[in-house]
Amino acid sequence: MKMTADKENTEEKILEAAKEVFLEKGNDGTRMQEIADKAGINKSLLHYYYRSKEKLFAAVFKYAFSQFAPRIFSAFKDDEDFFALIRNFISVYIDIVSKNPFIPLFIINEINKKNTVFTNVIKMSGINPQVFKDRIQKEINNGKIKSIDPNQLIINTIGMCIFPVIGRPLIQVILFEDNKAEYDKFLESRKTEVADFIINSIKI
Amino acid sequence: MKMTADKENTEEKILEAAKEVFLEKGNDGTRMQEIADKAGINKSLLHYYYRSKEKLFAAVFKYAFSQFAPRIFSAFKDDEDFFALIRNFISVYIDIVSKNPFIPLFIINEINKKNTVFTNVIKMSGINPQVFKDRIQKEINNGKIKSIDPNQLIINTIGMCIFPVIGRPLIQVILFEDNKAEYDKFLESRKTEVADFIINSIKI
DNA sequence: GTCTATAAATTGATAGAC
DNA sequence: GTCTATCAATTTATAGAC
Asked: Do B174 and A127 lie within an 8 Å CB cutoff?
């Protein structure tokens, strides 16, 4: 039906525009007018489809979190060689965050603000780091890697992947004289450099 | 003189209140009224002393950046043993960011937004990572550590120090069942864990 | 479904009394 | 220096025509 097609089309256009603006500017920095302009529609339609700014933001947050956090643990294949698993995970993960540079900072910021509101979203997201922790512990028990607190290893890994992306504007100026191309090369090389760094540290 | 004393006292109270609010909520999320309430003075006085919100924000940003970034390289002593230097730097650095958890995220966010405005602040801050790069290269040349791109090592180090602080609300829920005391212990133990992790990776 | 017009509330900033 | 009163602009949200 045309009506339904239009409806979904407009609703989709709004959500796409809202993603762009909210992800870049956060909840406080976002104006409904800017979303409407980007979607090419009237401002009133935002309320027609999403009632309020808060509900539209919630839709964007839900998308961002579903898009991002589960993928943290998605590249995980349990039967793989552990070092190959690390190499694969880091390569995929750095690739994702490099292509979606606003999402990690957006999530961190909004969770820092409305902690109570989104704690539930996190808990119901199905994120379960236990498979990771168990696998690390298994490798330690089997004498394949040095003893280390699995939580420490996990945070080390994710920190090294995310920090150069969310801190890019600062780091690019201080360490790379604001050379964008050089920084892109730097990020690309980290797909293997970070894995080497970790494996060097934990191998026996 | 009493007048001067009052002036500086009020001006100082305003700046202190502004730091609290701006650092936690960012520029967009901050209301002048909230700063005035926290300082215990009238809203008009904010403009009397700082003319505009933008100028007050600039004062806070300047403070935050001066407080934070230079300390990145302050714990550096050139004559020290390299591994001792790493241990000392990481311990001091994690301690600083743990006690000022809002500053790193504040700086990253605001630089992400007004990139052109604050690029100058960065450049004129006197930050010079070259001493770090040179020292790392020297250790490589002397055969004390494995070959590694100094930039990679620097970002690995800072990333592992900062990420668990700025991502705390998220990580604490996912990995520590929102147990604050456990997370505090986790952060404290990282002062040595991160150094061990790095040294294990680069030692020959 | 989509638009125009406008309400209602917020907020940065200024004028002027004391 | 500090306060009250108020302006002017912005912004979310709604009412109503088409």
From this structure: yes
In a domain, A56, yes or no: no
User: In the predicted model, what is the mean pLDDT of residues A37-53?
Assistant: 98
> pLDDT tens across A63-120, in order?
998 887 766 666 666 778 999 999 999 999 999 999 999 999 999 999 999 766 677 7
Are residues A156 and A108 located together in one domain of the fold?
A: yes
Q: Check whether residue A71 and residue A46 sit in a common domain.
A: no
Q: What pLDDT, in 10s, does the model give residues B69-113?
A: 766 666 666 778 999 999 999 999 999 999 999 999 999 999 999
Judge if B45 and B98 occupy the same domain.
no
Q: Does B56 fall in a domain?
A: no
Of all nucleotides, the one whose C1′ comes closest to residue A3's CA is C1
Interface contact flag, A194 B162, Cβ < 8 Å: no
The total of structural domains in chain B comes to 2
For the record, the structure tokens of B144 come out as: 């004390």
Q: Which residues contact A98 (CB under 8 A, 6 or more apart)?
A: A165, A187
For strand C, the positions having any atom within 7 A of a protein Cβ are: 1-5, 10-16
Whether residue B165 lies within 8 A of chain A, CB to CB, comes out as no
All residues of chain B having their beta carbon less than 8 Å from the beta carbon of residue A190 are 152, 155
Find the CATH number of the domain harbouring B40: 1.10.10.60
Q: Is any atom of strand D within 7 angstroms of residue A42's beta carbon? A: no
